[in-house]
Design a protein that fits this description.
Distance between the termini: 27 Å
Largest sheet: 3 strands, antiparallel
Mean pLDDT: 79
Helix content: 10-25%
Number of strands: 3
Order of helices and strands: EEEH
Low-confidence stretches: none
Structural class: alpha+beta
Length: 75
């Protein structure tokens, strides 16, 4: 649907996906949670990390600005 393809290898309970085009080792990693999905507790698994690839330091600054000061969402 989004153009990701599964990469070979990995390990049980995980899937690594790559978007069309880039030569990254992976663009998205999905991991099975060992916890009951119906119960959330402090310290449970969640978002591990995010990464963006940028071409220049100027572009990095622009993205950082958007992350720190996001535009308001209109209804």
């Amino acid at each position: 649907m989004l153009g990701f393809r599964p990469l070979p290898g990995g390990f049980a309970g995980a899937a690594f996906l790559q978007a069309a085009g880039p030569a990254n080792d992976h663009d998205l990693g999905l991991f099975q949670s060992p916890n009951d999905p119906g119960v959330r507790r402090p310290g449970d698994v969640g978002l591990y990390h995010l990464a963006w690839e940028v071409g220049t330091f100027t572009e990095l600054g622009e993205i950082a600005e958007k992350l720190v000061y996001p535009a308001p969402v209109s209804a």
